[in-house]
Structures are given as C-alpha cells and as structure tokens.
Amino acid sequence: MKQDEISKILKVGVQLSAERDLNKLLEQILTCVMELANCDGGTLYLLDQDALHFKIMLNHTLNIYSGGDGQEPEMPPVPLNKENMCALALLEGRTIHVADVKNSQEYDFSGHIRYDGITGYHTQSMLAVPMCSREGKKLGVLQLINAMDETGAIQPFSEDMALVLESVASQAAITIQNVYYIQEIKELFHSFVRVMSSAVDERSPYNGNHTRHMVAYGNRFLDYLNKRAIEAGQEPPFSPSGREELLMSIWLHDIGKLVIPLEVMDKPTRLLPEQNLAFFHRMEVIRLRGEIDQLSGRISAREQESLCCRTKKAEDLVKELNSAGILSEENRNELKALSNQTYIDETGATCKWLTPEEYAMLSISKGTLSQKEREIMEGHVAMTDKLLSQIQFSNEFSHVQEWAAKHHEYLNGSGYPGHLTEEAIPTEARIVTILDIFDALTADDRPYKPGMPAQKAVFVLEAMAQKEGKLDPELTRLFIESRCWEPDPN
Question: What's the rounded Cα separation, in Å, for the pair 47 and 263?
Fold first, then answer.
C-alpha cells in the first residue's frame, strides 16, 4: 500500500470519529471510500426493518449528488433477498465485487441496466461492502461503481482495495452505531424533559398548555430570526445546537412549580375557600340574629329589613371583589366601609363583619395572591435553579439552567429572584421572558383573569420594553414583527 493511501485511511478515521451529525457522517463515509477506491459512483444504504434504504448517492460522470441534506433519494428500497448483490453482501456479511455487471449471471442487475439505458451511463465494475457493528448487528451497505485507474479507464476493484474498504466500513459502522446511541440517549433525555414539563403543566388545569405554547412560539420566533439574518447576508444567530439548547430551557423554565402548593398556584379568588365560606356563613348568622332581635322586640322590622339589605349588599361586594382583576378606588372605599361594620356575637362581644385576614385578602390590588403567597409563587424560579443544578447537562446544554432560572429577571433590575440588570441577563433568557409574558397575558385558562387579545398583549409588551425598561426593546420589536403566536398556515 502506498504512503498516500495510508495517510488517506488515517485521515478517514479521524474524520469519522469526530462527526456526530448522522447526515454529515453518512456523506463523509461515502465520499471518503469513493476517494480511497478512486471510483466514479457510490451509494450508501442503511438497513431499516427488512430493506436497504438509499441514504446518499454520488456519481461524478452524471453529476448526481442526492441525500446529503437528510432527504432520502427518491429510489425504492432494496429488499433483503439474495438476488440483489448489496443485500446478499449484508445477509452473508462479506464483501462482493463484480468485474463486469452486464456479463454477471449471479445477481439481479436489471435495475442498473435499465438505469444505464435511460441515462446513457455505463455501469461496469461494482463492489458491495457490508457495515456491521462489533456485535455483528447489520447496519447497512456501501456500494461502489466503476473503479478507475490513473488514466480514468474503468477497471475491476482490486482485492487489496476491498480489504482497505472493509476496514473503513467496519470503522464507519462503529461510528454510525455510536451516533445512533447518542441520538437514542438524547431522545431519552428529551422525552424525560417533556414528561417533567408536562407534569408541571398537567398538575394544574389552569396551566395546561403554557410551556407547549411557549415552545411553539419559540420555534417560530427562532426561525424568523434566522431567516431574517440569512436574507440580510448574515450568519444565522441560532445554530441547530444553540436552538436546541434554548428550546430545552423553555421546556424546563417552570419545573420549579412542581413544589409550589396547588392552593397557591391554582388560587382563582382572593379569599381562600374556607375564608369565603366563613364570611357568607357569618352574614347568614347576622341575619338570623337580627330576626331573633326583631322577635324579641330589641329591633324594629324596618331595622331588620335594613340589616338584611346591608348583609346582601356586603355579600355582593365580596363576590365582586373576590374575583376582580384589579381593585378600583371605588372598590377600596366600599371595602373600607364594609370593614367598619360590626355586630354583637353570642358572647356579647363586638365583632367586625370582615376579619382582618379577609380584609387583607380582599384588599389585594391586582390578581389573587397576597404578598406572602406571591413570594411562595415567585419561589418557583429559585427552585427551578436548584432542581436543574442537580442535572449533569452535557456541554451542548450547559446554559439551560442559567437561561431557565433567569426568565423572570428584567433589564431594569425589578425582576426576581436576583434583581439582575441588563448586563447579567443573556439574550436567550430575555427571549424566554418575552415568550413567558406573552403567553401569560393571552392565556385563556387562568383562574384569576380572562386572556387578552394578542394585539392588546403586544401593547403591554411594548410598554414594558419602551416605557418601563423591563424587556429588551429590539427583541420585543422583532417578536412582535414575527407574529410567531400565529400558527403556520402550512
């Protein structure tokens, strides 16, 4: 074997061992063995169920290159029977070479002969090398066409070259199987992430689609950013691995909600159920005691009627305030007046119609959570950080924990839990924040508010970016411009 051939073989080994993208790997395998064999054409098949499927096809004379982009050539698969030379090579685990296809009676070359008749090509010598794992698992076949000498004349594939290609095919098979293993492990991890994310969303009927919506918006937004950059002649900002890492952080951004009590996470009203029940029971008791007082002559019928009217009005006010989105100044004044109402209980003590705890809950300005409950709810971000710190992420997902744990930070430092400012918040975390806020604003499954129309949510995002300084203005503008919340019409 010549020195340059040895160098080529060593180079092939290095190239194959370094590649982890299956499509690129298959392309490299075929181009490398064709270069080593100095042949005009080649096909790489992979075994799937009971047939060999075309993955890559190359032919220099016909200027054919098909399959390198991951799309399989439009050729019917080759059934695993002994009449097909490439299938037999895999079935018997041996290299087969034919000096002259047209004069061979052993194998079915009718397809090649028909193809030659259509294209004007001349298929003469062929070589089929099986690719099998160390354990003997059949993976695929390398089929080469028309070996050439130094002058370009077609010749049979030599025995020495067959041995070289067997060695390369063996290494290629190992590398392919390693890539398969990596893909399986990665898919297992992705499945685990989706399950954990679903566990968060399904834990609450009011949060069932939040993460899935964000992932859908994120996919379309990243597509938009990449397409925009390509059209401007620039490098796409998100590589496939960078995109995968960001989407992973979206899937996991709310995992800390697994430990948030449901009575906080699903709280649909300001009052807790037991507080609401206690208040209405109290109003009924006040009315009944009024009836007793009337029958005992302590109050008049008119006074009793006024008492009933006032308790009913109090009940209506509590019902309204309990589920109101935002408390108005008028609401506050009415609540304050209600809090000053008193009655005499069975022990003779003077008590207020509203307990201090009920008054505090009904006084919540916006939403349904008290300050203490809000702090518990906000704790999901710190818990997300803590839980994700227990996962040994690979290098390609090394930023997932950071991006997920910063999705409630604002550029002006008013976010939580770290009150970080602009320089400490990476672009990816800013994107997650925008997606999170938009879906929270438009969600129609939240217990404490109706969902906003998308256009109104856009105005809120613009205000948070331009007036309040919370969101990245340029990313917010691009998000709105992308309209990524609208499903792809295709």
Answer: 53
Q: Which residues contact 36 (CB under 8 A, 6 or more apart)?
A: 5, 8, 9, 12, 161, 164, 165, 168
3-state secondary structure of 40: strand
Report whether 484 contacts 224 (CB < 8 A): yes
Beta strands in 340-450 (DSSP E): 342-344, 350-352
Give exposure, 457-470, as e/b (b: 16+ Cβ within 10 Å). Answer: bbeebeebbeeebb
Asked if residue 40 lies in contact with residue 126, where contact means CB atoms within 8 angstroms, the answer is no
Asked whether the beta carbons of 403 and 244 are under 8 A apart, the reply is no
pLDDT tens track, the chain, 490 positions? 555 555 555 566 556 655 567 777 788 888 888 988 899 999 999 998 889 999 889 999 989 888 766 677 778 888 888 878 889 999 999 999 899 888 877 787 777 778 788 888 888 999 999 988 878 889 999 999 999 998 989 999 988 888 888 888 888 888 888 877 777 878 888 888 888 888 887 777 666 688 899 999 999 999 999 999 999 999 999 999 999 999 999 999 999 999 999 888 888 899 999 999 999 999 999 999 999 999 999 999 999 999 999 999 999 999 999 988 889 999 999 999 999 999 998 888 999 999 999 999 999 998 899 999 999 999 999 999 999 999 988 888 999 999 999 999 999 999 999 999 999 999 999 999 999 999 999 987 665 566 789 999 999 999 999 999 999 999 999 999 999 999 875 5
Instruction: List, as own/partner pairs, every contact residues 394-402 make where C-beta atoms lie below 8 angstroms and the sequence separation is at least 24, other chains included.
Output: 396/241, 396/244, 396/245, 397/244, 397/245, 397/248, 398/245, 399/245, 399/249, 399/426, 399/428, 400/245, 400/248, 400/249, 400/252, 402/426, 402/429
DSSP assignment of 289-323 equals HHHHHHHTTSS-HHHHHHHHHHHHHHHHHHHHHHH
Give the separation between CA 454 and CA 474, rounded to whole angstroms: 19
Among 355, 386, 131, 143, residue whose Cα is nearest residue 252: 386
Contact call for residues 485 and 454 (beta carbons, < 8 A): yes
Token representation of residue 273: 């159920």
pTM summary value = 0.70
Listed in order, strand segments (DSSP E) in 135-248 are 138-148, 154-155
Q: Distance between terminal CA atoms of the chain?
A: 56
d(CA 41, CA 60): 6
- What beta strand segments (E) does 163-284 contain? none
Whether omega for the bond prior to residue 417 falls within 30 degrees of 0, making it cis, is yes
* Three-state DSSP state, 261: coil
CA 80 to chain centre: 38
Distance, C-alpha 54 to centroid of its chain = 30
